[in-house]
């Protein structure tokens, strides 16, 4: 879900990496169904889109840079005939950004073994997996973790002649976050990392017409599939003409579903592990109203994800809710390259206040998160220009203090405002009258319907459910204070060295 305010610049938000979608449905137009599914999941990635279709003999893939509707027209869809399909919409955090090679699904063709793989998440041990493949003489083009996974599966499948063995083997070695769908010419597979970090659910088409796998339930809804269940952590589910089978590819570990899916990434009409995302966001607002009340005349939400939380805050506090910030839905982040003059327009390209509502009012403004703080600072300035007498910021996620390594595009610690300033400093810098974040426990409490609680909360707590290799973590973990200390230490060491010489 992209909310970049300055198209062409790095967004001041955590950005989702990808959407995956798969269909096994003989006799159906699986390419078109996948296209619809990807459109429903477009908020998870807007850089490229791709669909691969198997017809029992071979796999055809079509992919390109752009939104799903830009990539797939009638002629492209008509060329994809078959009964098993996987699709992908990409937002890049790993490997080459916005390149055709990095677009998915990835095809792996090693001798007679042909597979198409679509991946949501990020592997944290890509370098060691890549080195292993290169040692085996396997060539890599894109350099992404997803390509590495596809080649690793293909390589073992070639040796064992069993695709399931290839997937199981890869699952033993892949570390990090992965929700994957894979097509062979006649079979669809869905599998998920042992912590269940990124979401993946299964749906059934009516009258036994087939099966659908999707990152979110909103992808099932659009093709008329009924939600059956989530793919379990570490599980491999296989769909083919013999039916549906399930096996454990790798032992499940402590559950660590990304809690940020509920705050921001997922669509509000999706249900994740039994929890309505819309209801979760309302609950967050209600809990925040109890934790950090404000004396104000109106509650506003920052569109889109802040709106249900603002309604919840208003309900709990008794302060009236109002629309007050209008979002321009047609400002994309990938294909609009504004001139410097346009960049100056800043936040107004994306969000515009309603002065007739705001003038003379004390506002509580509900937003989903603060990453670098620039968006909030500009928004507050804009609301004051529109006549607000007070602006109280209330945030329905705790302070983002640590980078994500599991498929979300985050800054290094030195760029995360909450890792470098106290609450009072942030409030003053942004120009708010008050600033408060929901507590981590408050956020967990807003998810009462989750069937299997257990969350990744690493961007708030710094406790990572899957270890991050030292070479990846070293620079990302530094705050400004860390940099200053490291600089001081190096200077001191240099001085000592000179003395000893
Ligand atoms: S670090 Fe944050 S954004 Fe990343 S998976 Fe964990 S909760 Fe989600």
Automatic annotation (TrEMBL):
Protein's UniProt keywords contain Iron-sulfur: yes
GO MF term (any one): magnesium ion binding
Pathway named in the protein's UniProt entry: Purine metabolism; IMP biosynthesis via de novo pathway; N(1)-(5-phospho-D-ribosyl)glycinamide from 5-phospho-alpha-D-ribose 1-diphosphate: step 1/2
Binding positions (Mg(2+)): 305, 367-368
Cofactor: [4Fe-4S] cluster; Mg(2+)
Presence of keyword Magnesium: yes
Known catalytic reactions: 5-phospho-beta-D-ribosylamine + L-glutamate + diphosphate = 5-phospho-alpha-D-ribose 1-diphosphate + L-glutamine + H2O
Lineage: superkingdom: Bacteria
Keywords carried by this UniProt record: 4Fe-4S, Glutamine amidotransferase, Glycosyltransferase, Iron, Iron-sulfur, Magnesium, Metal-binding, Purine biosynthesis, Transferase
Coiled-coil annotated spans: none
Residue stretches making up the Glutamine amidotransferase type-2 domain: 18-242
Record EC number: 2.4.2.14
Signal peptide: none
Binding site for [4Fe-4S] cluster: 258, 404, 456, 459
PROSITE patterns registered for this protein in UniProt: GATASE_TYPE_2
InterPro entries per the UniProt record, alphabetical: GATase_2_dom (IPR017932), Ntn_hydrolases_N (IPR029055), PRTase-like (IPR029057), PRTase_dom (IPR000836), PurF (IPR005854), PurF_N (IPR035584)
Catalytic site: 18 (nucleophile)
Role description: Catalyzes the formation of phosphoribosylamine from phosphoribosylpyrophosphate (PRPP) and glutamine.
PANTHER family: AMIDOPHOSPHORIBOSYLTRANSFERASE
Protein name per UniProt: Amidophosphoribosyltransferase
Taxonomic source organism: Senegalimassilia anaerobia
